Amino acid sequence: MNKWIIAFSLMLVIFSCSLNATQETNFNAQSASYLKAVNGGLMLKVISKTHPSYVKHMKLKGDEIFKKTFSKKNIRKERVNNIEVRQIKQKDYSIQIAFMAESKDFFNETIERKPYVAISENNGLDWYFVPYKVWKDKSIFLKVKRLL
After folding, report:
1. Which tens digit of pLDDT belongs to each residue from 7-31?
2. In this structure, how many other beta carbons lie within 10 angstroms of the beta carbon of residue 126?
3. Which of 63, 73, 54, 67 is nearest to 137 (CA)?
4. How many CB atoms are closer than 10 A to CB 1?
5. Is pTM beyond 0.90 here?
6. Going by C-beta distance under 8 Å and a sequence separation of 6 or more, which residues neighbour residue 96?
7. Alpha helix (H) ranges present in 17-131?
8. Is the pLDDT of residue 95 over 70?
9. Higher pLDDT residue, 74 or 147?
10. How far apart are CA 129 and CA 39, in angstroms?
């Protein structure tokens, strides 16, 4: 009997922390779009997929800082080839995913690993992205429920 309780509890934990098919499809498509925009230096696309709280925060700092943060030169210096999901947290309609983005060179050797957070506030339909170091600044994301 104890084995069944442990097995059921383990299954519950595993499946409660994963995404359903629609959420996963949306995350994969939108994260690929975001990473393609970062790799291509597509400023407007990167801004459109960056969490609105961060975009607003940078805009309030002034035009020069905003332009510098989202400039082609700043965006294009990263070449992300692969992502690895580290943690998924979900509550009600909010989902947050911590993942590592991996930059590789021409010889397929890892140059840099950088943490990001993907945030959905509508049950996985739309996803927004921010670097993890930005996510740690609680003053930027005042209206976002923190799950990670």
Report:
1. 433 343 444 458 899 999 999 999 9
2. 12
3. 54
4. 5
5. no
6. 88, 89, 90, 117, 118, 119, 120, 146, 147, 148
7. 21-40, 43-49, 52-60, 63-69, 72-76
8. yes
9. 147
10. 15
